[in-house]
Amino acid sequence: MIQIQGVDTSLGLASANHNEALYRRLLAKFCQIEAAFAHRCRDMIAADRTHDLRRQAHDLHSTGAALGALEVAELAATLEAATTQGLMGKPLLDLVDAIDARLAPVLAAMAAALEAPALPQRFAQMQDLVFMARAESPARAGLWR
Fold it and tell me: Is the pTM of this model over 0.85?
C-alpha cells in the first residue's frame, strides 16, 4: 500500500474503492490542480471574488478529505467558512498562507510517493505464492516439476 506523510492513505484508498491504481491517478490529478491553489486564492482575494474563493476552498476541502489529506481539508474548511462570514483581505490571506504551508509539503510527499513504482497486486500475489511454495515442497506446490 502507498504511504504518504501527512495523508491517511487507508482512508483515501477506501474512497477509491481500494483501487490503488485509481487512487494514484486521483493523487496525481490533485497534485496537478492544487499546486497553484494559493496563487489562485491570492488572485481571487485581490479581485474581491469571494464566491470563487469559497468554491476553491470547498473543492480543496472535499477532495483533500476524500484523498486522506485531512489537515489540509480542515484548513480549507476554515477558509470556506471565513468566506461565508464576510471576512476580507488580510484575514483571508493569512488563512491561504496557513493552507499553503501545510499543502506544499503534502503535495511534495504525494509527488515523491507517486514517483515510486507501484507493486502490481498480481505480482505481489504471485510473490506470496512463491514464498509459500518455498516453505513447502516446490513439487507439492505444483510450481516446479
Answer: no
